[in-house]
Amino acid sequence: MSEEMNVVELSQRIISGDRVALAKAITLVESTKDDHIELGSHLVTACLPHAIESRRIGITGVPGVGKSTFIDAFGSALTDKGHKVAVLAVDPTSDITHGSILGDKTRMEKLASDPNAFVRPTPAGGALGGVARKTRESIALCEAAGYDIILIETVGVGQSETSVHSMVDMFILLVLATAGDELQGIKRGIMEKADLVVINKNDGENATYTNLAKATYHQALHMFPVKNSAWTVPVVACSSISGSGINEVEKSTNSFFTQIHTSGYLTKHRAEQNGYWLKQALTEELLHRFYTDTNTTAKLKEIELEVKKGNENPFNAARKLLKGWGYKS
Amino acid sequence: MSEEMNVVELSQRIISGDRVALAKAITLVESTKDDHIELGSHLVTACLPHAIESRRIGITGVPGVGKSTFIDAFGSALTDKGHKVAVLAVDPTSDITHGSILGDKTRMEKLASDPNAFVRPTPAGGALGGVARKTRESIALCEAAGYDIILIETVGVGQSETSVHSMVDMFILLVLATAGDELQGIKRGIMEKADLVVINKNDGENATYTNLAKATYHQALHMFPVKNSAWTVPVVACSSISGSGINEVEKSTNSFFTQIHTSGYLTKHRAEQNGYWLKQALTEELLHRFYTDTNTTAKLKEIELEVKKGNENPFNAARKLLKGWGYKS
């Protein structure tokens, strides 16, 4: 995408629901190139006034729990009801593995060919903070394109859930029903964030353990204090293969959104999230402005060398470099 | 400390080795009050040219492993040899527990009354990043006061070790010799950072398992790639109570410093650390300048309200707030 992009044209195509334009825009937002970041940022600003109010749902669980097949089944059930569903992913490990370990499109067969679904499962690499912000901006683009349900897949390692929590309204935790050790492998802090626990792969041999697992999770959830949303977390069993229980997941989701909408929790939670993103955006923008300032670049190189040699102390050097830095007039 | 501090006088007292002045200065550096931060920062700048080259040693291990008693015995052995020893601590959990869980002075009886030792075991609370920086500045103050060995106690939870690694030359990992499960409880990534493994409490019943533990740790250490310092990590057993093995710990420490001094690794490592601290200081100073700018405060409050209400998007708001922010020609 080397040619100059027409922001107005691209944003109009996104707003009209053009999936190719949406994919292009997300690529710009995910890019680490300066001119792409610039374009992506203008694009988000142009699209935001057109963003519809969607339901933002995070889906997490340890690798192997069947997140992709669940999203395929759950997402298809939602498009059947007339929703437009977008699937995004946050993967903090992608900078290490140089590629996403999250569900590829081949494991979301139904959604991938569904005209009312947009699947974007491979997130950009890089620092988690950056990835989270990019995902937050991608959400806005999807909402501008008319998607009223955004599913965000995370990898279940703890760190990603915390940042995803700052952009979703609801968290679904997928678990397996197997003999014993049900709670093993679930990172501390993740269960506390769950608004719905789904026992996945409730088929074949696993089904034998479903009731036991339900009891175990109910008991575990009971240990946590009442949620700020005042919502009581249900435990639902489902099979992404047979489709059993998917309806119940959908019903629980609806009940959750009805409750947080009515109680005002959704509004309050989103306000807090917006405050969080303002702080994040300010920090990123501050750093970006400083490090890309032409006055900085030469001076920084020189002083960094002196600091490394030990001729100048880092704290003093920082103050020197920032002398005269502030609002111009 | 409400009265205006005389930075020049206080720094002179620190450089002359006055421990009361040193303690006062560290309190300033650890403070979260704006005027204290300002004073502390001037103080560090005044002291830094007088900082001697010390050996900076991080000491870590799970709670209960006997860090405080070990530091008491090891530190006393060092002052016996004519060294001046300062003890600092980094405790990332202190903002949760509202108080340090690290060794209090009562568990460092010998060092606490040693004229050649300075013990400051209770670190300030707050965000880890901030704590680390404060500890880094406290090190500089201790070095200006003539302490040639700085021992930094950390809590063994993983996160603190990473930040301490950016300020020490050497890491000592304390472990226990007990039946089996020796490697249990040691956070991933900590053993890779160790330059010396000390099997502590090599007395009483534990002593039975010492040889087994030595073999286990040697084997575990063998799994890691060769260290950048090219140093082969020894495993030494000691008893902080009987004093056995403390001499060997000291010898291993000396060998380590001789090697990294000769090979040039120490110089290279410190240069990298200085580069790291320059980046840290720049980020902190950038944020500090922005949030304390009088032009910012009023505007930020107003725009934050609009962002929270959803009338303005966070990314656009950040750009608006930072308009005109940069070098004032």
Please explain how this structure is put together.
- The structure is a homodimer of 329-residue chains.
- With 329 residues, chain A is an alpha/beta fold.
- Chain A has helices at 7-15, 19-30, 34-47, 67-80, 94-97, 109-112, 128-144, 159-165, 190-193, 210-222, 246-263, 265-292, 294-309, 314-321, and strands spanning 55-60, 85-90, 117-119, 149-154, 170-176, 196-200, 235-237, 325-327.
- In chain A, strand 5 (170-176), helix 9 (190-193) and strand 6 form a beta-alpha-beta unit.
- In chain A, helix 1 crosses helix 2 (19-30) and helix 3 packs across helix 7.
- The two termini of chain A are 38 Å apart.
- The relative contact order of chain A is 0.11.
- The interface between A and B is large, with 47 and 46 residues.
- Strand 8 of chain A pairs antiparallel with strand 8 (325-327) of chain B, so a sheet runs across the interface.
